[in-house]
Design a protein that fits this description.
The complex is a heterodimer of chains A (about 120) and B (about 375). Chain A has about 120 residues and is an alpha+beta fold. Chain A has a single domain, classed as RNA polymerase II/Efflux pump adaptor protein, barrel-sandwich hybrid domain (OB fold (Dihydrolipoamide Acetyltransferase, E2P)), CATH 2.40.50.100. Chain A has 4 helices and 9 strands. In chain A, the strands form 2 sheets. Chain A has a 6-stranded antiparallel sheet. In chain A, strands 4-6-7 form a 3-stranded antiparallel sheet. The two termini of chain A are about 25 Å apart. Chain B folds into 3 domains: about 140 residues, Probable tRNA modification gtpase trme, domain 1 (Gyrase A, domain 2, 2-Layer Sandwich); about 80 residues, Aminomethyltransferase beta-barrel domains (Alpha-Beta Plaits, 2-Layer Sandwich); about 80 residues, Beta Barrel (Elongation Factor Tu (Ef-tu), domain 3), CATH 2.40.30. Helix content of chain B is about 20%, strand content about 35%. Chain B is built from 8 helices and 20 strands. In chain B, strand 11 and strand 12 form a beta hairpin. The radius of gyration of chain B is 20 Å and the shape is globular. The chains are: A alpha+beta (about 120), B alpha+beta (about 375). The interface between A and B is medium-sized, with 11 and 15 residues.
Chain lengths: ~120, ~375
């Protein structure tokens, strides 16, 4: 799936939707703004998350940022790779650098998210 | 508000794709590609820094030595020609005006001060100026490039015929480097071997590229202020504005060794002597986290659940791969091995006071 087909939040997360599953990561813009990511704190598998609430933290050299839940649901998988080698997020934010996979509880929440065009405008503005 | 200043190497940083930030009134590169990679480059081989924002004053005249003895805490009279000294200026109440370097040159002294304090320091010195002393602020006419890392001497050696082996740590020389007659010293703020080159603005660009060429075989890279900060913190070198300022005294900051109480009078001496004798109420300690975490400036330091201080500097150490930091705590909690906690966004992570430096394998002499 290309970046044009992803959904986005104003807080610079992306969501890849596949039926009721959502993969969540941060955008290339976000990783550039954060700089070197030194570690991430991710939720446990099974945790219920709520749209717009923090589900983890991203510790970068110069700053710390929350990872906000773009959708509500249950965490079914977390990316062990980025827990061990967080630089992967800087290198490949849309691929190997994903954060969590979520089983969505309310797909209508996707309507609150931004399209690629809307997100592109946001970061240019 | 005065205008933001640019260093003579500004265009080079822009072309290199550096992320620029305003620091102490200058547009400076905070990183080129990656702070972590730049940090590790300096630890492993060699890196080059634009430090042209630093301030330089020339103090000359027959009473220059007496003047500096009065204004600074260390013993300037102990310096041989071309020797360099780490020192500080204090207020009468013992608070720190700035930390600095003094170069004793044949006919003059050079002070190197923090960029953010150039105006303040210059005014402070001017206020106390006496007959027989000439003070000049040459900051705008001096560029500064640092070459730091275990391979620094090999890089410098390609650019000069001077015998660098005989140049000791904290000593300087005037010689030809890269075709230019310059003042340079074996000094730095990284814990690695290295040199600092004081340059006329017009030669900075050319010498920058000559150093880059000479360092190519060691994968030399430009290093931004971000890595400069993490390199100095791994050594527990204090940063003015974070770890020391007008509200901290040199004794509690662990800088008693640059306060020479037997050299004669200097500004702040009486208070500093008293604090030293009575022992400071608090001390700047080095701590490391026992759990994975990133301590940051202004986070609370706790002991048995009670707030006992604040983090003044903190990083996730690229060399040690753990959270490390500095902060003031009551003297009773300042011994190595003392358990502390750091409040990281509501989570209290276990930390312990350690003996500095954090990084013990530095190549500096």
């Amino acid at each position: 799936m290309s970046v044009e087909e992803l959904k986005y939040t104003k807080e610079h997360e992306w969501v890849k939707v596949d039926s009721d599953m959502a993969v969540i990561g941060i955008t290339d813009y976000a990783q550039k703004e954060l700089g070197d990511i030194v570690f991430v704190e991710l939720p446990e598998v099974g945790v219920k998350i709520t749209q717009t609430e923090s589900l983890g933290t991203i510790e970068a050299v110069k700053t710390v940022a929350d990872l906000f839940a773009p959708v509500s649901g249950e965490v079914i998988e977390v990316n062990d790779l980025i827990e061990n080698d967080p630089a992967v997020v800087n290198r490949d934010p849309y691929g190997e650098g994903w954060f969590v996979k979520v089983k969505m509880s309310d797909k209508s929440e996707l309507d609150n998210l931004l399209s690629y065009e809307e997100y592109s405008k946001l970061i240019e503005g | 508000m005065s205008e933001v200043k640019l260093t003579p190497l500004y265009d080079i940083h822009i072309k290199a794709g550096a992320k620029m930030v305003e620091f102490a009134g200058y547009k400076m590169p905070i990183q080129y590609h990656s702070i972590t990679a730049e940090h590790l480059r300096v630890r492993k081989t060699v890196g080059m820094f634009d430090l042209s924002h630093m301030g330089e004053f020339i103090v000359s005249g027959e009473k220059a030595l007496d003047f500096l003895q009065k204004m600074t805490t260390n013993d300037v009279s102990s310096l041989k020609e071309y020797q360099v000294q780490y020192s500080a200026m204090c207020y009468p109440d013992g608070g720190i005006v700035d930390d600095l370097l003094i170069y004793r040159l044949p006919d003059r002294f050079m002070m190197v001060v923090n960029a953010a304090n150039i105006e303040k320091d210059y005014n402070w010195l001017k206020e106390h100026l006496t007959a027989g002393v000439k003070l000049e602020n040459i900051s705008d006419n001096i560029g500064l490039i640092a070459v730091q890392g275990p391979n620094a001497q090999e890089v410098m050696g390609k650019l000069t015929d001077d015998n660098l082996d005989s140049l000791e740590f904290y000593h300087s020389a005037e010689g030809v480097v890269g075709g230019y007659q310059i003042l340079y010293s074996r000094t730095g703020y990284t814990g690695e071997d290295g040199f600092e080159l004081y340059l006329e603005p017009t030669v900075c660009e050319d010498l920058w590229w000559k150093i880059a060429d000479a360092g190519e075989e060691f994968d030399i890279e430009p290093i931004g202020l971000g890595a400069r900060d993490s390199l100095r913190l791994e050594m527990k070198y204090a940063l003015y504005g974070n770890d020391i300022d007008q509200t901290t005294n040199p004794i509690e900051a662990g800088l008693g060794w640059i306060c020479k109480l037997d050299k004669g009078d200097f500004i702040g001496k009486n208070v500093i002597a008293k604090i030293k004798e009575e022992k400071p109420k608090r001390r700047l300690v080095a701590f490391e986290l026992k759990e994975r975490g990133f301590p940051r400036h202004n986070y609370n330091i706790l002991h048995n659940g009670e707030v006992v201080g604040k983090v003044t500097s903190g990083i996730f150490s690229p060399s040690l791969n753990k959270g490390i930091g500095l902060g003031y705590v009551p003297r009773s909690l300042s011994k190595a091995g003392t358990d502390l906690e750091i409040d990281i966004r509501g989570k209290h992570l276990e930390a312990v006071v350690v003996k500095p430096p954090f990084y013990k394998r530095g190549s500096h002499r």
